[in-house]
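sanity check both lines:
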Amino acid sequence: MTTPMDITGKVAFITGAGQGIGRAVARAVAARGAGCVVVVDRNGQAAESVATELGGIGLQCDVADATALGQAVATAEERLGRIDILVSNAGFGSGRLNLDDALAVPDELWTRMWEVHVMAHVHACRAALPGMLARGSGALINVASAAGLLSQVGDTPYSVTKHAAVGLAESLAITYGDRGIDVSVVCPQYVATAIVGMDEQGGPGTVPGVISVEQAASAIVDGIVARRFMILTHPEVLGYLQRKVEDPDRWLIGMRRLREGLRAGDFPKGRK
């Protein structure tokens, strides 16, 4: 049986933590006794605000910039001596769904999504892994999406890059799991954040299937503590995935029906 992780005194480095799920995870690990939380966000003021609240360190960084992200990791290690928990969380949506043309998104957006949803994980892990491997312990948590297991109807690059993020996490777990490194991939479904066009305080409880960022963060931190590879904030996603694997053709028919429902204005219409 796997021994649970004790977060007490650990140093957590969290990207996209100026708002949304990242901020909620930062607050949750701090509440469970983390020694210091490094809050990283493209919005430097937001990062500083959350860091001040938690007594941590705020760093401005665009995670798509490999050099800047590597420097942020180096700064955290220089100031704190180590990073024990890396939560690579930053992400974004296209802004609107295109239900009639899966290839309509311009190449610039494809590139940006690839940089943020895949390569940012690669860059962060490359920077933090050497120290973790030298100590023989550490945790890498990549936040993907239920769209990385299923699909986000109407947002092809989001689905494709989130699938890639899941595949990356699997490779990391296979390669480093026997060397003291815990690897997790988080696959949220509908969480009340700006990425789904909702206010964090206004969505939960008002729209079926939508949970709060606090609920998502609690499930994520529980998964980290349990050293679970796949962390599902919405348990029902496992059932959807099982049906997809058991009968892909039937699953695709169901997804086409969902697409028609979305065209008629039915929820759901977002992602994490």
Notes: The chain has one domain: 11-263.
